[in-house]
Write a structure and sequence with these properties.
This protein is mainly alpha-helical and 380 residues long. It contains 17 helices and no strands.
Length: 380
């Protein structure tokens, strides 16, 4: 879940908003982390205790609703995977000088290779863990190298000079929106970590996943803050990359390539795995051939990028659509949490999680609908 959320968009968004808000970005990160934890704890508890994937929970709440949720997840996952594949190509280009298109194809081949293994899920777990540790280590190294004004960042985390509400919505949508929050929840179900007896592990895992993304977000925030506080200007075409080159010169570009590629390849794997997990339970054949369907998902994403590049307008619109999935999905899970047929006769959902979950649903729904309307008008 954590490595799925840390993709090319994660790097660009964090850099973009830090350049705008400076030290006040600390407040944005703090609020978004709180909202992320509330959303993910609610969703994972329902999935974990029930032992049902998101689409199956939704179908039990209202017949047919699971098909709607699955359709939105797959469309959003496919669209964003085009960007993930492109990000992987850019990462190899920065790291090794390989042409971006060839880099994307090579990266897709590596992702496909993972799913050719009989024990693909175990290989996937190990690859994402290693990539995650590499990203965190390199990001912390760059953050330290830029000598950011840590004191000011801490102060404005709690007393900001500027409130970036759009940044909060974007960060929440990018961390637990769309397929991302289900990536870890579905993986727990597949690993057999379900039922009330595993509730502590499920809850701990949901919070840990968010905190890992938080470490990456804070490290990148400090790195960017360290650069812009010195009066240096970021390249608008690739702001995240310019942070690393400002900090470490040409070597920084290579470091950025490693981080970008690791972020992108794990997001390719996560988006493909989770999107396909939303349709596997609809027919026995889909379950039997799940790995081949996942491979096909990656091939289609790569083919679209290779032939027409990133369809920017479509990605913008589907990005807003993807953000809308969070209030829908979370709302469904909150209803399911009080359904004894889904959760069992003994489970009791914490009242504080319900209240805070409803607040997140309403807040994100209102803001995301406004975003969808704005983006829809730009398409035509």
């Amino acid at each position: 879940m954590a490595t799925s959320s840390v993709g090319p968009g994660f790097l660009t968004q964090t850099t973009f908003f830090t350049e705008q808000l400076l030290a006040s970005m600390g407040f944005v990160i703090l609020i978004s982390l709180i909202l992320d934890i509330i959303a993910q704890m609610n969703i994972w508890r329902v999935l974990g205790v029930s032992g049902l994937r998101g689409q199956d929970v939704a179908n039990k709440v209202l017949p047919g609703l699971g098909y709607v949720l699955a359709t939105l997840i797959v469309i959003g996952g496919l669209a964003f995977n085009i960007g993930n594949v492109a990000g992987a190509g850019l990462g190899l280009n920065a790291m090794l000088g390989i042409d971006t298109l060839y880099g994307a194809i090579v990266s897709a081949g590596i992702a496909i290779f993972i799913f050719l293994f009989k024990e693909a899920s175990k290989v996937m777990d190990r690859v994402t863990q290693i990539a995650g540790f590499i990203m965190i280590f390199l990001m912390l190294y760059v953050a330290f190298s830029t000598s950011p004004p840590v004191g000011e960042a801490i102060q404005q985390t709690f007393v900001p000079k500027e409130f970036g509400w759009l940044a909060i919505v974007t960060l929440v949508g990018g961390t637990v929106g769309g397929y991302i929050t289900f990536a870890g929840g579905h993986r727990l179900i597949e690993a057999g970590i379900t039922g009330e007896e595993n509730l502590k592990q499920i809850t701990t895992g949901s919070v840990t996943g968010i905190l890992i993304t938080g470490v990456m977000r804070v490290a990148l925030f400090l790195a960017v803050l360290g650069v812009v506080s010195k009066g240096l200007t970021l390249d608008p075409n690739n702001p995240a990359a310019s942070v690393f080159t400002h900090a470490l010169g040409d070597f920084g570009g290579r470091v950025f390539g490693v981080i970008m590629w690791a972020a992108a390849i794990t997001s390719v794997v996560g988006a493909a795995y989770t999107s396909v997990s939303f349709i596997r339970s609809f027919h026995p054949l889909l379950e039997t051939y799940k790995n081949w369907i996942t491979i096909g998902f990656i091939i289609v994403s790569t083919a679209v990028f290779a032939t027409i590049g990133q369809p920017v307008k479509t990605l913008v619109f589907v990005g807003a659509l993807n953000a809308l999935i969070l209030p829908l999905a979370l709302g469904i899970m909150l209803i399911a949490a009080y359904n004894k047929k889904i959760m069992g006769p003994t489970y009791k959902h914490p009242l504080w999680l319900t209240i805070t979950g409803v607040i997140v649903v309403v807040l994100m729904a209102v803001l995301c609908i406004r975003t969808v309307i704005t983006n829809f008008s730009t398409l035509f």
